[in-house]
Design a protein that fits this description.
Blueprint lengths: L2 H19 L13 E16 L4 E10 L2 E9 H6 L9 E11 L2 E11 L2 E4 L10
Parallel strand pairs: 3-5
Antiparallel strand pairs: 1-2, 1-4, 2-3, 4-5, 5-6
């Protein structure tokens, strides 16, 4: 009797499809209609694999007047190629798309202004420059 095995197989496939198409597993993308500008002080800079860029990325913990928010800047290699870096205590302004990442509010950066210069990481439509 293969009917119970067939039913279990189909149920397993449906479960896998539901798990991987669930909204909580979708990678946030840049949405130009949800663009914001925030200013703050860099509290920490971290490099780790980021599903948004698909590679190791640079992330800032930015202390703003409304609290601390994580900023997804760009792939680490992109910043290294441009000889760009951030330091704790830097005052920066970020223009980017507001997202929810791992249950917390975050921003995907399009530009950052610091030390008197503005650096672009994405086009105005959100497409990456790397």
């Amino acid at each position: 009797m293969k009917t119970p095995q067939t039913i279990m197989g189909i149920a397993f496939v449906i479960l896998v499809v539901l798990l991987f198409t669930s909204p909580r597993h979708r990678v946030p993308t840049y949405d130009a209609s949800d663009e914001v500008t925030v200013q703050g002080v860099v509290q920490d800079e971290q490099q780790f694999y980021c599903p948004i860029s698909g590679e190791e990325g640079t992330h800032l913990m930015l202390k703003t007047e409304n609290g601390t928010i994580q900023v997804h800047v760009a792939p680490t290699r992109f910043l290294r190629d441009k000889d760009l870096g951030f330091s704790t205590g830097d005052h920066i302004q970020v223009v980017g798309s507001r997202i929810i990442y791992q249950g917390h509010e975050a921003i995907i950066a399009r530009t950052a202004t610091f030390d008197g210069q503005t650096v672009a990481f994405r086009q105005t439509n959100g497409h990456p420059l790397w």
